[in-house]
Amino acid sequence: MKFICIGRNYADHIAELKNERNEDPVVFLKPDTALLRDNEPFYLPDFSKDVHHEVEVLLKINKEGKYIDRQFAPKYYDEVGLGIDFTARDLQARQKAKGLPWEIAKAFNGAAVVGQFVPKTRYPDLGALDFSLQVNGQVRQAGHTSYMLFDFDTIIAYVSQFFTLKKGDIIFTGTPAGVAAVQAGDQLTGYIGQEKFFDFAIK
User: Fold this and answer.
1) How many whole angstroms separate alpha carbon 155 and alpha carbon 160?
2) Exposed, middle or buried by CB within 10 Å (0-12, 13-18, 19+), for 69?
3) Nearest-CA neighbor of 12 among 177, 180, 178, 179?
4) How distant, in Å, are the alpha carbons of 44, 72, 191 from that of 131?
5) How far apart are CA 112 and CA 83, in angstroms?
6) 64 phi and psi, to 5 degrees?
7) What is the spatial distance between Cα 67 and Cα 76, in angstroms, rounded to a whole number?
8) Cα separation of 122 and 117, whole Å?
9) CA 25 to CA 49: how far, in whole Å?
């Protein structure tokens, strides 16, 4: 299993971080060791003083494929979920300033939070999903998949040009604006619509 993550997929998030908008999806990977599931607590790492939450809709790949045409992309996932892409923002900024890769700021242990998955057939329109993150009961991020620069099928078609997708792989589809640092004692709860998908503590 691998995590394929899409960056800069919401214009408001690009603006808040003052990043450049790309013509193609920005792609990075996380290893399976980054997985945090079953509402286990997230322990703040010693190497960062500025770990940010990024709530994202997830796609779970259901069969192997590569060079997938966009029209066939829906056949390669039948479940959607919600998760958190944790980012050590201070570490990422230092790496970017030096022109170095920043995987260590994205792919560390516990940095890929995966909540529950549900059949995609539960939703009549995957391009119209409301999702949100609450921190200590207050909405911190709120997104809508209609605002994605690259939709689910475009993402699958694009990444499959470079990586063979395998059953069980998970795609993080990008985060909306509102990212911010987490603190010990915070409680993070994620929703698609009114349905809770994860609920875990920061320690």
Assistant:
1) 8
2) exposed
3) 177
4) 25, 25, 5
5) 7
6) -75, 145
7) 12
8) 11
9) 28
CA–CA gap between residue 12 and residue 93 (Å, rounded):
19
Mode of pairing for the β-strands spanning 3-7 and 26-30: antiparallel
Backbone angles phi, psi at 90, to 5 degrees: -65, -45
The tokens of 22 are what?
């790309």
CB-CB contact of 146 with 16 (8 Å):
no
CA distance 150 to 188: 26
Phi/psi for 171 (5° steps) reads: -105, 125
Residue 151 belongs to what domain range? 3-201
pLDDT tens digits for range 6-65: 988 887 655 565 566 668 999 999 999 999 999 999 999 999 999 999 999 999 999 999
The span from the CA of 9 to the CA of 63, in Å, is 24
* Number of structural domains found in the chain: 1
The model's pTM: 0.95
Torsion of CA 136, 138, 144, 149, to 10 degrees: -70
82: domain CATH number?
A: 3.90.850.10
